[in-house]
Fold:
Amino acid sequence: MKKIATILSLFLVLYFWSVSPILAQSKVIERAITNGVEAKTIVMLLLLPLLATLVSVMHYILGVSGYGIFVPTMIAVALSATGIAGGLILFGAILMISILSNLILKRLKLHFWPVRALGLVFISVGVFGLMVISTGLKMVDISNISIFPVLFMILLAEEFTRTQLVKSKKEAIKLTLGTLGLAILGAVLMGWQGVAEVVLRYPEAIIVVTVVINLMVGNYTGIRLTEIKRFRKAIRKK
Structure:
C-alpha cells in the first residue's frame, strides 16, 4: 500500500507540474514546429519512451518477450517508416539472405568478423535488388526507404543468428516473433493519428503517464499472464 500511495503522490506532483503554464511543454513544441522542426519527428521522439513502456508492460505483465527493450522499439520505428507490410517483407528478405550467406560462408572457415562483413555484402546486394523489384509492384514499394530501417532490420537478423548459435533455433524464433509482435503493436500505435495529436497537444501528460506506468510495473510482483497455465496447480493449492 505504501508503494501505491507513493506512486499516486508522485503522479499528482508530476501532473500539477506538467499543467503549470510556466513549464508546459506544448508551448515549446509549438515554437519548435514554427522554427522548422517536423511535427512527425517530435511525435516519434516523445513516443519512444511510451513504446519502451509498452514493451516493458508486455514483458512483465503478459510475459511476451523479445530481444530486450530497445530492439523492439527500434523495429517499431522502422516499421512505421516502411509500413508494416513492407517492413515485414524487408525483414524476411534480410533474414533469408543472412541465413543463406551464413551457410555459404561457413564452408570457408573464416574468422567471425570477416564472415559478418561478407554477410553484409550479400544483404546489401539483396536489399538493393529487392528495392529495384519493388518499384514494379503496386502493392508494396520499399524503394524510397532510408538506410536506418534497413540497419534496424539487419540488427534483428543478426540477433536471430547470434541466438541460434548461442542458444537454439527454437529460442531464436520465439524471441524474433516476440520482437516483431511488439514492434507491430508499437508501429500501429505510432501510426494512429489520434495518438500523434495527443502527443503534440499534451506532451506533459505523455511523460507523466510513462513515468507512472513504469513505476507501477517496476513494483509488480505478480505472475505473468502467459505463465498462469504453467503454474496453475501451484495457484490452485494456494
Observations:
- Residues 1-67+202-227 form one domain.
- The radius of gyration is 21 Å.
- The chain has two domains: 1-67+202-227, 71-191.
